[in-house]
Design a protein that fits this description.
five-stranded antiparallel β-sheet; DUF3006; alpha+beta; elongated; 1 helix; SH3 type barrels
Length: 71
């Protein structure tokens, strides 16, 4: 499956990073609750809640490690 991450919204467009490229799609094609940082299944245009949460957890762990090491 192809996935992308919502980078930002610009007007009625969603800017999505797919790993090797950045694409723009109409915002209305996404669920109304989709937000920046959500992982999107590009076939169904649905938020993959499990992948989104896993990604957020990984980012939080990395940030925590950086701040703990800075003392």
């Amino acid at each position: 499956m192809a996935y992308g991450i919502i980078d930002r919204f610009e007007g009625d467009m969603a800017i999505i990073e797919t790993g090797d490229k950045i694409i723009s799609i109409k915002r209305h094609l996404l669920p109304p609750y989709a937000s920046e940082g959500d992982v999107i299944d590009l076939k169904s245009m649905k938020v993959d809640v499990a992948k989104t949460q896993s990604r957020k957890n990984k980012i939080n762990r990395l940030m925590r490690d950086v701040w703990e090491d800075s003392d």
